[in-house]
Amino acid sequence: MAQTQPPAPTQLLTVKGTTIDSAANKPLGYVTVALLDAKTQQSVKAGLSKDDGYFELKAAAGKTYQLSFVSVGYKSKIVNITGTGTDVNVGKVLLQVSNNQLNEVSITASKPLMKQEVDRITYDVQADPDSKALSALDMMRKVPLLSVDGNDNIQLKGSGNYKILINGKESALVAKNPSDILKSMPATNIERIEVITTPPAKYDAEGLAGIINIITKKNADQGYNIGFNSRFNSVFGAGYNLNGTLKEGKFGMSFFGGFGSNGDHTTDFSNTENIFANHNDIVQTGTNRQKGTFTYGGSELSYELDTLNLITASIDIFGNNQNQGSLQHSNTDSLGIAKQIYNLQNTGNSSFTGLDAAINYQLGFKHSKDRLLTFSYKYSYSPNKQFNDNVFNDRFNYPYALVPDYQQYNDAGNKDHTVQVDYASPLTKQVSIEAGAKAILRNNYSNYHVDDRDTLTQKYQTNDLLTNDFNYHQDIYSVYNSYQLKMDKWTGKAGLRLEHTALSADFASAGVTTAPSYSNLIPSISIQRSFKTSSLNFGYTQRIQRPDISQLNPFVDQSNPSFVNTGNPQLKPELDNTFELTYSNFTKNAINIGLSYAFSNNSIQNVSSLQVETVDKKTDTVTYTTFENLGTNKTLGLNVNTNMNITKEFTLSLNGQVNHIWLSGDFNGNMYHNDGFTGNAFGNIRYKFNNGFAFSFNAGFFSGNVNLQGSSSDFIFNQYLISKDFLNKKLTIVLVANNPYAKFNTFKSTINSADFYQVSMNQNYYRSLAFRINFRFGKLNSEIKKNEHGIENDDTKGGSKNSGSSGS
User: CA–CA separation, 203 vs 209, rounded Å?
Assistant: First the structure.
């Protein structure tokens, strides 16, 4: 019988050599060396040169290859491999110091995770292997200066006073609750995240702590590329995401969209308040139920009329529908004697929709590809409807005349029209200019009413005292001019932005009141000194914080009639000054250390006070919470970030910051002072096995907040991920365990005023298990051409950046 011959072993090609610093004529270690297929330009093997500059790579013989050399601070280099043998020594490869990277020095090797530029830090999400396993919100925990607390609220340098943009533009996707979207969106949709700590003059002067700019993927060549992502979470249910790109001739398109569940879950809550004057103790206990769904999507279109004329358009839409309910028992006693008791059943619904539509025209110039003139228009519409039905039973000393059964309606939102023109051009090889003008015409509105149930007819009748139509017009006109100077080792950027704000407030029940207009001249300065493997950055800017509709809206939310929330239409803008100093060292294990100081007067604070209501000789004490311009806010902060490549398979990253906050303000005739430390720390450990498996462990600590009248509790986060790649890395399956040690976590917040002390406890789901799928097909490498400039509305302070829950 003939014997089958075993297949011949695959012949290997070995490529080796030594990387050399051409100026010092010394070996250069930790250079990223990649072996590329000469035809497809795809990486076949990659590694780092050793301390003595030596490298060695192996690949299948019989193909034509090239070597790519990349190192921070040096010019990249391509070397063709010649010869027919299986052992090729390219000898000494000389790398020259680069003068082109002085204003954006990269951290780590290969594909850098981070980039420290003159006015921002950029985190390359696609360079992070965990991007296929994590949601966009989870990825935020890894980005320097960012943190995510136990309620999934994003913070920048420990502050919620920032602006978040999508592709450089304010978007309906993240207008109300960015965590809703980012928790449901896979990180594979995102190209990079920019943390702009010293925003240049081209950006609106809003967002005290800075700007978070999320850049979504837009890779395209002739053809198409489609990606599908799905997650199934034990607490929050299912979520689905589709994204893709298409390029055909001069036409290009990118899109993404998703839908899913926010979950259906019930949690406990409690409120305890001690009123000093009458020794009253109010104790409330109950349960909250949340159930909801979300949808989101966006598309960007591009058409090149010719090499100098480009038209782009985009549309983004988001919808969130939430049903909520609560059962609450309230008991008030004085020195152990019952004073008031009632039970309250609350059912309600809220729906939020966000729509953005924009069009841009970009004109280039023949003699300079970097000289651009852009005209832009954008329309935004964000309606938000709320309804609550409140029914009491088992009343004791809580008569109908004081608080009848009632229903609340609130139809709020905003409509914006924005027109903008931008011009950018190099003046010399070292100096470039940016200039532009912008107009934002904004209309915030809130039409609300409360209907009380009549004791005789049992029908609901409108309560005129709690009914109003509120319109708030805010027109902002601005011009800016900035210059950038780029020298051998120094880069500087400085600019001025002049903004004029015209305001008017219209209350249907009280006539028209016109708020005074005001103007602001906002400076910004950024300086970077670059060294061979490190840089030192300094930044200073002023920022203005205008209140948005959620803080201005006079709608009185009486979902809990003992603890009422309302806005303040008389709020004034807040002005902030920020100084920053950052050191970055870019060796094999990179580190970023930053020191910042910020202070503001006329600070917008969330405050609470007691109000006594008397109806038919029956009195009730109610806690009112609103917003006020109060005193000063000072913050001194230190942040540290490092990424370490322990081995080729094993990586470790740490991201942490600590702040000391000083708050003071005069409210209700009392002077309040509060200060304390806040901070957070996040760590990631990842090990990649040779068979496509990878294991990651994420853990974090969030200290809670320090407020003018109180504070909130700490939070610990931990997450385990196991992933496996299939089909040549086109399919990734991930198992996720979030906080497996406890089903619930309880968050505590306190208010300590001159008249009362309050403690609120809210239970949240803590443990969840998730299963994620990431599948993509198609091959597109170049980029869809898009405008270099466009509308970036980052000019209002969000009153609520809290999330619902859409799962990891």
Answer: 14
pLDDT tens-digit map of 215-248:
877 654 556 778 888 888 898 889 898 888 887 8
| CB 446, CB 411: distance < 8 Å | yes
Tokens 């305890």 belong to 272
Q: Tell me the CB-side half-sphere exposure of residue 124, using CA atoms within 13 A.
A: 16
For the ranges 140-149, 337-346, 735-744, the lowest mean pLDDT is seen at: 140-149
How large is the C-alpha radius of gyration of the chain? Answer: 29
Task: Annotate 721-758 with b (16+ C-beta within 10 A) or e (fewer).
Answer: bebebeeeeebbbbebbbbeeeeebbbebebebeebeb
Task: Answer whether 443's CB lies under 8 Å from 515's CB.
Answer: no
319-356: b or e for each residue (b if 16 or more CB lie within 10 Å)? bbbbbbbbebebbbeeeeeebbebbbebebebebbbbb
114 close to 124: Cβ distance less than 8 angstroms: yes
Report residue 789's pLDDT band, with 50, 70 and 90 as the boundaries. Answer: low
pLDDT band at 808 (very low <50, low <70, confident <90, very high): low
Beta strands, E only, 490-617: 490-507, 511-513, 518-530, 534-545, 563-565, 574-585, 590-601, 604-615
What distance in Å separates the CA atoms of residue 338 and residue 352, rounded to the nearest whole number? 41
Q: Where are the alpha helices (DSSP H) in 185-223?
A: none
- Closest residue by Cα to residue 212 from 129, 318, 118, 123: 123
Distance CA 242, CA 138 (A): 19
Q: What percent of the chain has pLDDT over 90?
A: 36
User: What span, in angstroms and rounded, lies between the C-alpha atoms of 25 and 109?
Assistant: 21
Which residues, 6+ apart, have CB-to-CB distance to 480 below 8 Å? Answer: 201, 202, 434, 435, 436, 437, 438, 495, 496, 497, 498
Estimate to the nearest angstrom the gap between the alpha carbon of 275 and the chain centroid.
Answer: 39
Beta strands in 308-405 (DSSP E): 309-334, 337-365, 368-396
Q: How many of the other CB atoms lie within 10 Å of CB of 257?
A: 16
- Rounded to whole angstroms, how far apart are CA atoms 701 and 656? 9
Write the pLDDT tens digit of every residue in 670-703: 899 999 999 999 898 989 898 889 999 999 998 9
From CA 209, how far away is CA 545, in angstroms rounded?
10
Instruction: Give 6-22 pLDDT, tens digit per residue.
Output: 445 567 888 999 999 88
Tokens of 642: 């490092």
% of the chain with per-residue pLDDT over 70: 88
What Å distances lie between residue 55 and 27, 337, 775, CA to CA?
11, 82, 34
> And the tokens for 559?
């979902």
In order of 16, 18, 186, 301, 711, the CA distances from 31 in angstroms are 13, 10, 31, 38, 48
The two tokens of residue 122 are 């950029």
> CB–CB of 272/283 below 8 Å?
yes
Is residue 242 within 8 A of residue 258, CB to CB? The reply is: yes
